[in-house]
Amino acid sequence: MAQKPSIPKGTRDFTPDEMAKRNYIFDTIRTVFRLFGFRQIETPAMENLSTLMGKYGEEGDRLLFKILNSGDYLNGVDRSLIDNNETVRLAAKICEKGLRYDLTVPFARFVVQHRNDLQLPFKRFQIQPVWRADRPQKGRYREFYQCDADVVGSESLYNEVELLQLIDEVFARLGIRIAIKLNNRKVLAGIAEVIGEPDKLIDITVAIDKIDKIGIDKVNEELADRGLSSEAISSLQPILAINGTLEERLNALDRVLAGNETGRKGVEELRFVASTTVSLGLRAELDLDVSLARGLNYYTGTIIEVKALDVEIGSITGGGRYDNLTGVFGMPGLSGVGISFGADRIYDVLNTLDLYPAGTREASKIIFTNFGEKEADASLKVIKRLRDAGISAELYPESAKMKKQLGYADSMHIPFVGIIGESEIAQNMMTLKNLATGEQQSLTIEGLISALS
To answer: Which domains does the chain possess?
Structure first.
């Protein structure tokens, strides 16, 4: 017996109904991207591993999907690497390419490669899948889409303000209540210096970024395992426990970092971004979270994360400022800031809350019945006129009983049925049936176009 086909864990098929919902998300995000002046690009699914490795930190490197070289990939490889199970060194010999982990590093590569063709500042958006060799669980997949918007070639904090407004607009249109969390990498660097562990910044950020997932006690254990002294861990506790309003948190952080120039600069940047955004009006909640690090080494300033308020799920949007990401590709000093919408998690949130507008799953606006060749030909002429007017329409392909054709229309979420029989042909009219109400009316082609527009 043939083995039942399946797909890899952490990946999903999407039915036409599901794709209609996903396209609603993509179209909403794409529309707002363009509203804010961003232009679309695409990059390959796979990149050279030299492009990807070392950009995401230790955990990110571990989660990269590596692609075996084509042909006899073991030819010339030192067999002792296999015998001694030296998988990291072996992978470096037999894998030259990998699936992209996110869209930001490939974008940095794109900017450097096409630098002579770009006008700075350059505002781009990109909607494509990414891959991570993570453990699949609710809200976490190995293949998922990101919807990114970035600005490179400008150090202005107004870019952060614009991105926060963009986030607010997207989720307002989707109907999802959100909280936007802010932090700043300079603040984290200042904290590391204040507690006496400046060389442990990466260890600190990787650990504290997990507070929401594993709790403060486990985070403290991880900090100790990473070599932080008990005094430093103790000094960190009141900083991570800072609470109150946004202004109160900023003031408390300002006091903690009073003697640290880097940390104070981070607080100043946070205060400007937050106050300017709030002054413009914001529907979302805006909060400061000093544990927010997002675990990515390339952030140098503002850090952004978005949580859904009505569904228990991980981050649904994130991003931040990166001042020298292109430097590793030979173009130092180019500042950028960007955000990434997690389309798959947004999809799960909308499904859970059933927030899709009516008509999202419609295949066509109207389907015409088929009672035979003469009637079908007449219907096709009308369908052509409707399509010319921008109205989606189709013909039921076979001559069948009316009940079967109406049942098909209902199952495909088509709201209207057009009926052209002998009497309609004789009168040069057609019958429009509303499946939701059962109402029927006799119309000319002009009247039909008006009714459906």
So the answer is: 16-46+101-353 (3.30.930.10), 366-452 (3.40.50.800)
Write out the two tokens for 14: 């999407």
- pLDDT tens across 298-324, in order? 788 999 999 999 999 889 999 999 887
Residues of the chain with pLDDT under 50: none
Q: For residue 81, what pLDDT is reported?
A: 67
